[in-house]
Amino acid sequence: MVPKCYTTGKASKKSDVYSFGVVALEIACGRKSIESTYEEQEASLVDWVWEACGNQMLLGVVDKKLSADFNVKEMERLPIVGLWCVHPPPSMRPSIKQAIKVLNFEAALPNLPSRMPIPNYDIPSTPSSEPTNLVH
Q1: I need a labelling partner for 91 at 20 to 30 A (CA). Which of 13, 99, 110, 127 fits?
Q2: Which band of pLDDT confidence, cut at 50, 70 and 90, is reported for residue 12?
Q3: What's the predicted TM-score (pTM) here?
């Protein structure tokens, strides 16, 4: 689930796209989105795949159980679309329709930044308390 849903409690089309992206990454990599058994730099699936993409090592994240028995062009698209869907600024995420077109080779791959942008989550502010006067 997209982190913003935890703070707002509300889902949206963009949060659904985020979830689709996480599932795409889980399928491509054969692992869960958070794995505490991995080293810190690999614990977050999104961070790990984005790092691999930026280092031109995208096929290195592919599920080892596939034993290289996959279509390389298709497998290159799946994690890239997954990253596009989990892009930290929701405005940079595609629609599901756009993502499916890329997966079906009906549209070009998106240009992603080599490093994952820093997420900026809107956290609802709480009203500040009035200072209290402790003078008796």
Answers
A1: 127
A2: low
A3: 0.75
CA 16 vs CA 10, 20, 56, 113, 131: distances in Å: 11, 6, 28, 22, 42
Would you state the structure tokens that stand for residue 51, as one six-digit string? 């790092």
The overall longest dimension of the chain from CA atoms, in Å, is 78
Q: Which domains does the chain have, with CATH numbers?
A: 3-103 (1.10.510.10)
**Cα 119 from Cα 94, distance rounded (Å):** 17
Distance from the first to the final alpha carbon of the chain:
50
Which residue, 59, 40, 36, is CA-closest to 49? 59
Determine the distance from the C-alpha atom of residue 8 to the mean position of all C-alpha atoms in its chain, rounded to a whole number: 18
Mean pLDDT, to the nearest integer, of 41-54? Answer: 84
Q: How far is CA 89 from CA 55, 98, 124, in A?
A: 22, 17, 17
φ, ψ dihedrals at 47, nearest 5°: -60, -45
